Amino acid sequence: MSKNKGNEKRVESIADMNVDFAQWYTDVVRKAEMAEYSKTGGCIIFRPYGFAIWELIRKHLDEKLAATGHENLYMPMLIPEHMLQMEKDHIEGFAPEVAWVTHGGTEELTERFCIRPTSEVLFCAHYADTVQSYRDLPKLYNQWCNVMRWEKTTRPFLRTREFLWQEGHTAHATAEESLAEALLILDIYSNLTEDKLAIPVIKGQKTEREKFAGALATYTFESLMHDGKALQTGTTHDFGDKFAKVFGIQYLDKNNQLQYAHQSSWGISTRMIGAIIMVHGDNNGLVLPPAIAPIQVVIIPVAAHKPGVIEKAEELQARLKDFRVKVDKSDHSPGWKFAEYEMKGVPIRLEIGPRDIESNQCILARRDTGEKITVSLDNLEEEVAKLLDSIRDNMYEKAAKRLQENTYQAQSMDELKNILDTTPGFVKAMWCGADACEEKIKNEATATSRCMPFEQEQVGKKCFVCGESADKMVIWGRAY
Amino acid sequence: MSKNKGNEKRVESIADMNVDFAQWYTDVVRKAEMAEYSKTGGCIIFRPYGFAIWELIRKHLDEKLAATGHENLYMPMLIPEHMLQMEKDHIEGFAPEVAWVTHGGTEELTERFCIRPTSEVLFCAHYADTVQSYRDLPKLYNQWCNVMRWEKTTRPFLRTREFLWQEGHTAHATAEESLAEALLILDIYSNLTEDKLAIPVIKGQKTEREKFAGALATYTFESLMHDGKALQTGTTHDFGDKFAKVFGIQYLDKNNQLQYAHQSSWGISTRMIGAIIMVHGDNNGLVLPPAIAPIQVVIIPVAAHKPGVIEKAEELQARLKDFRVKVDKSDHSPGWKFAEYEMKGVPIRLEIGPRDIESNQCILARRDTGEKITVSLDNLEEEVAKLLDSIRDNMYEKAAKRLQENTYQAQSMDELKNILDTTPGFVKAMWCGADACEEKIKNEATATSRCMPFEQEQVGKKCFVCGESADKMVIWGRAY
Q1: Tens digit of each residue's pLDDT (9 = 90 or more) over B88-120
Q2: Do B40 and A76 touch (CB under 8 A)?
Q3: pLDDT per residue over A151-164, tens digit each?
Q4: N or C: which end of chain B has fewer CB within 10 A?
Q5: B75: how many CB neighbours lie within 10 A of its CB?
Q6: What DSSP element (H or E) covers A183?
Q7: What mean pLDDT do residues A249-260 have?
């Protein structure tokens, strides 16, 4: 061990997040080995450490979806061109950014296929085939898959041509049910985000301008990144019977009357990983909420060459079997290892050396605060469990405090611009509901409406753009 | 209930498997609601019941791969054309059957991308970037994903343009290690197939002609379908340093010498589901091995309108929480339900009615044999566990007996042809090793070498084609 100590380089430093947030983000993504650029332009390699986070998010959400009666299935990745064109708003929304398959082997195809940017039309066609009676409803289907949107500018996790997501598509008997589904899923998403990712969110409805192509209403939960920009991490849509009328999804009700089905769709994607980085990360790298940390506890043997140290480290790992634990037995120096697992955001570092073993104790260092505590080995399992809970709570509270401190009110366009230029964050302001005002905000302040929060406040009486009377409080911001 | 009894149609009948096996197969796939044809030619919709089987296979295999140190990640689905062309044999094997993306949005691309038919080249490029030192090895990476091969004729699960699979790609320091990996994974695959899917397999090596494009050696496990045809359900490949030399995957060994890495790759796909259908199915539909049955026990309340019956059914479901249990409370008749869950291959049907409740018992009907037993409710959990084990064992033994009974020996081409034309199955015959003989067999008997089994037998001394001396016993057959 000591042989390496002198000449071994510590983990390379990363950009200062307060100086160059974008560079800091890229540095963390790459140095923590979450993702790497690929030879396929605009697409990333989800490296094992980054992908494991996605697998944990998937596991948590999948359990919730199963518990609420949803079923997973899998639809083709290619959509025939004529199908994408069936719903007018939908094709207008997606056609400019899809990838087209024109050849199979050496032959040119008679009809092009696009790689799914989203799968509404495929689910609709399937429902039209399989829904006949009220007994066939509701259909609560979900798929975990890859999708593709031919973006011009990309950034790992936040915007890539190919990304991973789940897309739920449901069909119901009534308008009330499809609306209830869109709201139920919004709750499942936001609970997951707050509980497992320790990220506070604001729930609300999108404006007409920002809603999903083809939807009746879009619901969203928005969160605030460390640099004061907003990130929309997931949305749910109520389609009413709009798609059902286009695709002919009809069922016989209990009175033998033909009715149109009502639908919802909803998705969260690997963007979530970007949110985790940008909400919790610091100048030492990633900070992971315990529920989705691929390694929750890393055990670092100190003076590992001394007899009994490695054995003790393995014994502790075995005792901590209810957690995701790694013992780093490599021949890197302890200093290198400390920096490495800080960069990777591992919630707890457990240090164990000969003197600790002698006194039947070990050191637990928490990643979120840097605090170190010495605990008796007798009740290690409980101490670790308690500490992980405390880390999650502290991370959430810290993020909630930042959200509160960076949420402002504006009464005029100048005020809005001034806030966003100097102390970026969320800005609450009253809006009359006119698209012209929303467009003006976009053009003059390069800000968008994030949502009309469910929890409304009266922060004024007039639209801050046109001065007409206004009863909608909207949250505005600059977004990823 | 009784109101519906008269006019309700039972599950529609399916083709007789002994008369028209292909039609029987399609009928089972569709009537058991495993898959449906899609509007995307050559691609299927994996319906929830079929997809749940895949999810269970994935869960079992993923646990084994994690336990042996493998990590999941995710690579882009598109491969730039120039990369696919880097390894000569590889491009020759795949170019005729890939789908090409030529346009992104409205713009024609300067370089085409193919949708991955397999991802060797992407993993190789990533290894070339990330492997520098012996410390970086081995890399034991795996991904679960969709792939696409532009097939002319397709059949649900067995051959579709898009299918789901896992592809493992590993890099090792030495030739011994990459070979050992290919053989380790072959064991993991075949144990999974025998243990969880109750399908007996024969393990061996592929001939030069049948090996994977670009591999040094391909290993396979083959199984026999109900109609006497072979199905290759998974393969593992040892690449040696062939790809490493093309892609420049080199590392510094402990003596500071530059060495080429050695690689393996391996995959199983949704074809597995086709094997389950064709090995275990019968004229009443699907028969599922318990380990991958989405529903292991279906509880059918008899005289469900009588007080206490539904409640009792739900109570039993709660008690059987260690199993995947469904209570069918729908207003279909018991007769409809019996046929429905037989078609879906549910291992155990549990019938519970007022008289059963009175005598503290229920009826368990096993799908594999049709046998019904009456058991006391006192030890229901143990009875169900025992019965599921017994069903798996019986299914395996039945399939093993059929495999044995349909494995023949041939000393001449005429004998081979005669066997395959009259009593199809596996045919053991000695082969000299010449590709010309293998080609002759393909042309004259429309049969292929399935594998050179690891367990060799001396079934003759001369090649059954050319009469030259032969020391390889090969299994021949007609395959899906």
Answers
A1: 777 787 888 999 999 999 999 999 999 999 999
A2: yes
A3: 999 999 999 999 99
A4: N
A5: 26
A6: helix A175-195
A7: 97
Residue in A with minimal Cα distance to B136: A330
> What is the helix (H) or strand (E) element at residue A217, kind and residue range?
strand A217-224
Residue A7 has pLDDT above 60, yes or no: no
Which of A99, A141, A102, A107 minimizes the C-alpha distance to A124?
A141
Nearest residue in chain A measured CA to CA from B39: A80
Give how far Cα B244 sits from Cα of A46, B130, B259, Å. 22, 13, 10
For A457, counting Cβ atoms within 10 Å of its Cβ (0-12 exposed, 13-18 middle, 19+ buried), the class is exposed
The answer on pLDDT for B10 being more than 70 is: no
Q: What is the mean pLDDT of chain B?
A: 95
CA-based radius of gyration for chain B: 25
Give dist(CA A338, CA A15) in Å, integer.
19
Q: Which among A78, A124, A145 is the top mutation candidate for probing chain B, defined by the most B β-carbons within 10 Å of its own β-carbon?
A: A78
Q: What pLDDT is recorded for position A4? A: 38
Residue B65: its pLDDT value, please? 98
Nearest to B55 among A72, A97, A115 (CB): A72
Structure tokens at A73: 């299935």
Contact A473, A459 (CB under 8 A): yes
**Chain A CB contacts of B51 below 8 Å:** 72-74
Asked if A74 and A145 touch (Cβ cutoff 8 Å), the reply is yes
Q: What is the complex's ipTM, to 2 decimals?
A: 0.95
Are residues B251 and B164 in contact, defined by beta-carbon separation less than 8 angstroms? no
Task: Summarize the confidence of residues B216-232 as an average pLDDT.
Answer: 96
Task: Name the E strands within B211-279.
Answer: 217-224, 230-240, 250-252, 258-260, 262-269
Residues of A in contact with B103 (CB under 8 A): 99-100, 102
Helix axes B380-405, B309-319, angle to 10 degrees: 70
H/E element, B419: helix B413-422
Asked whether the beta carbons of B72 and B142 are under 8 A apart, the reply is yes
Can you give the pLDDT at residue B213?
A: 85
Helical axes B48-67 vs B175-195, angle rounded to 10°? 140
- Nearest by CB to B96, which of A36, A106, A161? A106
Helix ranges (DSSP H) in A320-379: 334-343, 354-358
**For A79, which of B40, B146, B161 is closest by C-beta distance?**
B40
CA distance linking residue A127 with residue A247, whole number of Å: 9
Q: Do B78 and B114 contact (CB within 8 A), yes or no?
A: yes
Show the tokens assigned to A97: 């950014």
Cα A407 to Cα A202, A224, A424: the distances in Å are 11, 9, 9
Beta carbons within 8 Å of B476's beta carbon, 6+ residues apart = B410, B416, B426, B427, B428, B429, B441, B445, B447, B448, B449, B450
pLDDT of residue A89: 78
pLDDT tens for each residue of B397-412: 999 999 999 999 999 9
Distance CA B204, CA B186 (A): 9
Please answer yes or no on whether B75 and A38 come within 8 Å at the CB atom.
yes
* Reported pTM: 0.95
DSSP for residue A413: H
Compute the distance between CA of residue A357 and CA of residue A343 in angstroms, rounded to an integer: 27
A-chain CB neighbours of B164 within 8 Å are: 74
CA atoms in the 13 A half-sphere facing the CB of B338: 13
